[in-house]
Write a structure and sequence with these properties.
Strand content: under 5%
Structural class: mainly alpha
Radius of gyration: 17 Å
Helix content: 55-70%
Number of helices: 2
């Protein structure tokens, strides 16, 4: 059950990051999507979705690897520093 929850937690941000890439690509080809009045706003929204989705997935993987002690010393949390 825990693995299914973890998969769902990774799929949703992955879909959002993919949609962000689609918005940025559409802006480069001059295709304006419905909820956006300007192309630059569409690109900015796509970039935010992409960075947020990718950041969530990266943070999730880093947290999991820290719990299992599979990271290099420079990625370990240091309490005093």
């Amino acid at each position: 059950m825990g693995r299914i929850v973890a998969l769902i937690l990774l799929v949703i941000p992955g879909i959002l990051a993919g949609y962000g890439i689609k918005l940025m690509r559409d802006m480069l080809f001059g295709i304006l999507q419905k909820p956006f009045p300007f192309l630059w706003l569409q690109f900015l929204s796509g970039a935010i979705l992409f960075v947020a989705g990718l950041g969530f997935i990266a943070g999730f993987v880093l947290h999991r690897d820290r719990k299992r002690n599979k990271v290099q010393n420079r990625f370990n949390k240091s309490d005093g520093k």
